[in-house]
Structure prediction request, 242 residues.
Amino acid sequence: MASFHSRTFRLLGAQPPISDAAFSEVERAEQRLGRRLPGSVREWYAFGGALRILAEHSNNDPPIPVDKFAISEWKSLQLLPVRVESQGVCMWSIVLDGSDDPPVYVDVDSNGTDWQLLSPTFSAYVYACVWDYQVVLGQPALVQAQNKSVTEGTIESLCSTFNEEPRTFGWPGSTQYRFAGKAHGILIWSNKNQADWFIGATDEWPLEPVLSAIWTLDDVGTSFYDCSKIGKRVLARIWAKA
Prediction:
């Protein structure tokens, strides 16, 4: 069966079954809200474990249960909040624009007065959430860097070397860049004055070559530090060769 979330399920390694209880919850929410939810949203929340998947692939940022869905308005947009940040710094909302796979906006510490585009579609938003943790942040071989703002030349180089995954915007950087290889991923939170780099891999053998390949980009290699035992060993070998 075709699914808005096929890419996400491939990352997870399985598609959860449609849950009768979850589907009934969606229908009750639609009756209460007086409108049908967009196709990709309706599909996602009808799967068993949808809320758990979102919660697990986050920095402890709780998703809003379907029975708590409530529509709000901002300027000319109708917003459906679906998640809040663990410290209350930001909130994520679906924009009910009539499309089957609507955009997601984020409000960053403005108490609902300044929303900005985070993802062009809800399915891409869910995919990005899962990708970050499945491919990078949840991997056993992980290194990190806080570096100067990423340059256009570096992004061009990464695009030519790796497969680019969806970009998102607004939080936690102004732009999030994602790049994938066979057994590794690169996640960059880019802001005006700083870029946070995260390189995740399944083991030492894919981590070392990807670090070597990107080492000189924006001189990021000088800023890498380990946040895993595997990362510590790999960085030590690279520094020893320098």
User: Anything to note?
Assistant: DSSP finds eight helices and eleven strands in the chain. The domain at 139-241 is CATH 3.30.310.50 (TATA-Binding Protein).
